[in-house]
Amino acid sequence: MFERPDVGERAVIVHLEISSHNEPEDLGEFVELVRSAGVEAVDTVTGSRNQPSPRLFVGEGKLDEIRSSVLASEADVVLFNHALSPSQERNLERELKCRVLDRTGVILDIFAQRARTHEGKLQVELAQLDHMATRLVRGWTHLERQKGGIGLRGPGETQLETDRRLLRARIKAIHKRLDKVRRQRDQGRRARKRADIPTVSLVGYTNAGKSTLFNRITTAHVYAADQLFATLDPTLRRLELPDIGPVVLADTVGFIRHLPHKLVEAFRATLEETAEASLLLHVIDCADERREENMEQVDDVLLEIGADEVPVLQVYNKIDLLDDFRPRIDRSEDGVPARVWVSAVTGEGIDTLFDAIVERLAEDVLNLSLLLGPHDGKLRALLHEAGSVLSEEYLDNGDAQVEARLQTRDWHQLLSRAGVRPDQVRYAPVE
Q1: What is the pLDDT of residues 381-408, one digit of tens each?
Q2: DSSP assignment, residue 135?
Q3: Tell me: the pLDDT tens digits for 8-59?
Q4: Do residues 313 and 338 make contact, with C-beta atoms less than 8 angstroms apart?
Q5: For the Hflx-type G domain, which residue ranges apply (predicted)?
Q6: pTM of the complete model beyond 0.85
Q7: CA 102, CA 88: separation in Å to the nearest integer?
Q8: Helix 118-133 vs helix 103-114: angle between axes, to the nearest 10 degrees?
Q9: How many CB atoms neighbour CB 359 within 10 A?
């Protein structure tokens, strides 16, 4: 199902403006999806309707236009930039004498080509089987079905029923294996939480440059390409940040308008990395004319997966495509970094991005001025061991005045290891 030979498929694209739909599909984005699927779009048929036809989605006149286009261009497949019902797909295939796929089918095809890891392939297969379950009848309409009652029973299980049973068994098996993956991920996240290691997750509209940025930050060489859904499998890398220590950076699947719900469900194990993150880097293609709409779509998916409460730092990527634009940090009214302008391709602004990430993660960092006597030797040694000491000066009375910077949780851990209660700590007077 996953490793298929390259085929030079020629496609006719069909896009209708449906006035009864509040959020119309974007033709430009669908053409990009088709290109990402490795299919050649030989013709595009457009039109408008008040509402779709229940039987064929399009009207009789538009059907004739599509049929003529298929014959003239010798197309192998017709791709609809809409969600089609199983019966509409069957009826269209019968009329057009070629394969018909809707928007979800195209996205699933891209996912099947891109999945690389065992988990990614399982998730794609689950989404495909869910999608296929309602379309099984297509290839077996010539077979008789069983009937109930005396004298009306068929000769045992038909091929259609066998397929349905095997399909249900396969879906059940995949769910069990994905549950195991989800438990393993939960275990990894719990271990990171126990070790107080923050997770920074990259999210954003597909093709916004997340993987290129991930590679620039981590030198991980994750597959990155100028195509939709280049990344499907989550990649985790460990970073060391000043004042913060170890941080886990996660690259995730891109979002898209009207992402099919089956895909959101299938990739829930992957998307949980996003929901459990300490900070989200929302990567935005700042040169895209539709960036505001794309940002809204990402926010909608974050809400659907329960990640809308996670702190967000916006990363406006691809400033190299803007005229004479320099990297910078935009701050909120509270002075907190809210937006960073960078170029993942050229590396401009990456240092600025690191500073902003450190600042956002270090909102609970303490700057301490401590007075440590000879009896505080263990606490002093632990502060040096943690690399938290900025400066140290000995006073006339034998005390050491230590300037330290560390996170609140680390400070409490050091006090506990040194056997010192918080009320026993002496602080230097503020001048």
Answers
A1: 888 887 778 888 888 888 888 888 777 7
A2: T
A3: 478 899 998 887 666 666 787 788 888 877 888 889 898 888 888 889 888 8
A4: yes
A5: 198-365
A6: no
A7: 10
A8: 160
A9: 18
DSSP string for residues in 272-334: HHHHT-SEEEEEEETT-TTHHHHHHHHHHHHHHTT-TTS-EEEEEE-GGGSTT---EEEE-TT
What distance in Å separates the CA atoms of residue 409 and residue 383, rounded to the nearest whole number? 13
Backbone angles phi, psi at 331, to 5 degrees: -110, 155
Edge-first strand listing for the sheet containing 77-80: 40-49, 10-18, 77-80, 99-101
Confidence of residue 343 (pLDDT cuts 50, 70, 90): very high
- State residue 394's pLDDT score: 87
Q: Which of 252, 246, 241, 259 is nearest to 275 (CA)?
A: 252
Amino acid at 223: Y
3-class DSSP state for residue 429? coil
* Cα angle 22, 202, 263; round to 5: 50
Helical H segments across 195-290, by residue range = 210-218, 261-266, 268-275
Task: Provide the total of helices (H) and of strands (E) in the chain, helices listed first.
Answer: 13, 15
**Please, what is the end-to-end C-alpha distance for the chain in angstroms?**
71
Tokens 């495909």 belong to: 128
Tell me which DSSP letter residue 206 carries.
T
Q: Which strands form 400-407's sheet, in the order they lie side by side?
A: 389-394, 400-407, 365-372, 426-427
Compute the chain's Rg from CA coordinates.
28
Residue 142 pLDDT > 70: no
Which residue type is seen at 107? I
Which contiguous run of DSSP H or E holds residue 368? strand 365-372
